[in-house]
Amino acid sequence: MLNFTDSKICQPLSDNYDDLISRCLNGEVAAEYQLYHRIVPKMYGICLRYGGNETEAKDILQNGFMLLFRHLNQFRFEGSFEGWVQRIFVTTAVNYYRKNLKFRWAVEYTDSGEDKGLKEDALSALSTKDLLSIIQGLPGGCRVIFNMHVIENYEHKEIAGMLGISTGNSKSQLHRAKILIKQRLQEMEKERCLIMLHERK
Amino acid sequence: MSEKIDFKANDEGGLDQLMRKTMAGYRVEPRPGLWKGISRKLLWKEIIHFNFTNLSPKFWIAGTTALLIVATTLYIGFPGAATDNVTTNPVVNIPAGLSAGHPAATSSVLIPASSKPVHNENAITGTRPAQVPASEKPTKSAIEAEQIALASVSGRQKKSTGILTVEAESAFVSEVAGENKLSSTGDNGLTTYSGITPVKPCKAMLLSISPMPDTIITIHTPTGILKVRKTGPAAVQFFSANLGITPEIAFYGGSDEYTRTNYWLNGGITYHISRFSIASGIDLGYVYDEGKYGVEYKSRDSIGYFNGVTSYTVGSNNEIIYNTQVIGVYDSLQHLAGASVRNRYTYLQVPLLLGYRFFESNRISLTFQAGPAVSVLLGSHKEEPAVDYRNARIISVDNNTPSRIQTNWQILANIYFEMRLNKKLSFYMEPSFKYYLKPMVTQENVTFRPPWTIGLGVGIQFNFGNKKTSP
User: Fold this and answer.
1) pLDDT one-digit tens code per residue, B233-264
2) Does residue B28 belong to the interface with chain A, where contact is any CB pair within 8 Å?
3) Is the Cα dihedral B322, B327, B331, B334 positive or negative?
4) Is B203 in the same domain as B321?
5) Are B377 and B404 in contact (CB under 8 A)?
6) Which of B44, B54, B403 to mutate to test the interface with A (most CBs of A within 10 A)?
7) A191: number of CA atoms within 13 Å, CB side?
8) Cβ(B412)–Cβ(A19) under 8 Å?
9) What gap in Å lies between CA A156 and CA A13, rounded to an integer?
10) Share of chain B above pLDDT 90, in %
11) Chain B residues close to A2, C-beta within 8 Å
């Protein structure tokens, strides 16, 4: 009598998204799970960037998958499927924040002019986890715009259209985000120096 | 995740580039339980956002047929539906001598002794009530009609009171007594008379109750035929709950045709109004199916033999005698074998059935029920294949079991046979037929047909609440 683990007996993952999508459209639950399993690490990464914490990220992730499976039949099998899914998740994240942070968009940010330079090696000591925590530490509006503009390469016009704000507002929010990031980096640099001093002592 | 990044802060666009390069491809594996929540939500969304436009033509054909059946049944069967003009017909008075206190009044149909048989144009057309003047004496034939009507109907009445409406399909002809000839029919046990003059229906107020609503009792009189329809306590309304079990045989079609026995635990609630009912509930189903696995293994197998010389001897005539031995030749051979297991599935089914009670007597009733049902796969228990090949090395085990579809819609129809044990409790039995709108399983490159099932449900039914009647 031999024991088989699930990984041995389950069907191998399909390499082709088209096949998986077709099976999902036929209502095959196993295919839905396979599709989820393949794309979830990247999408969860996006959700963590847009979400302020893990709970919000999970909410966005769930909403995103709901939206994805509901509109899967709209995929035309042209271009990158992952790119298409990514747009769905970004839209979901944006909608999530539009719902929850609507009142904040009206506040125009005024630049304080505070933009201190960073040391040459300020960024070199950072890990991905540190960067994520910096992004997550940004206020909701700034975080969404920073993600959209800097990481997803959306233009300010597009961002303004998607969020229902003015282009100027989008720019100022981005500017504010960058300043906050630099401030946070400086703080982290200080903390690092203090730790190093403490260790030397 | 924790790798260090080599970037300079004051490079041109250093921060942006750093963020883009690092975070654009950022991947994190979420906790395994997350999919459960998503799949559960997906399931509910599918149920809530059930879209009729996605359904196959079969569903539309079945739905339209069911709708037509219900509409026809409603038109034909609903009390008073086909006799709306009855209220405009003449009212026959209850005779003074036969009031509610009269021994016959509580259990008999009362045909007015005082009413002169309707023989005028007004009565026929029903434009005004045919109140017969008191001065007019009833004729002999009219009295006979009353007596016969009493005799005919009394045998079918129950001990309760209510108001019945009589529709007479013939008028009472006053001067035909002499012409009436007695004849009998063996079919219904009632006595019939000839000499009948058919006219339009008239209406009479009666004191009587039939065990069944909407019962039409035909009364044969010397002057015509009376049809008595109970219109008083017509719309009986009450709830009932039932609990039972249904074993069913499922016929799976497609490239591989086979049958399986499923078992359902049924719990339901039914709202009855008159002869109609609407039923729903929750059924838990135990369904099993065969899990198929392809096992690839290598084993050391015999591929032949040869006679090997073990020794030889030289005989007396210098001949050489070889001593041989049969030696088997073995090689490692690759095999492909099949293994099957019994997979068990649990389904939740929610039916919505419309029913029409087409037969009812004191003890038993028969109801036809039909409607849609949705079944949802709640859980599955998949066995592992027992692969036990001696001297074998397993290379791979492929699961070739078709995947079960999470949600499926069916059309359900049954004949609900109810036997009343007492006022509150009944025993029921329901032969049923179920047709799935899409296959229950799916697999790549394999075509499956929607299955259908026949079952026989048995259980008990509780009737609770008072049977409310509409006024």
Assistant:
1) 446 788 899 999 999 999 887 667 788 889 99
2) yes
3) positive
4) no
5) yes
6) B403
7) 9
8) no
9) 39
10) 18
11) 387-388, 394
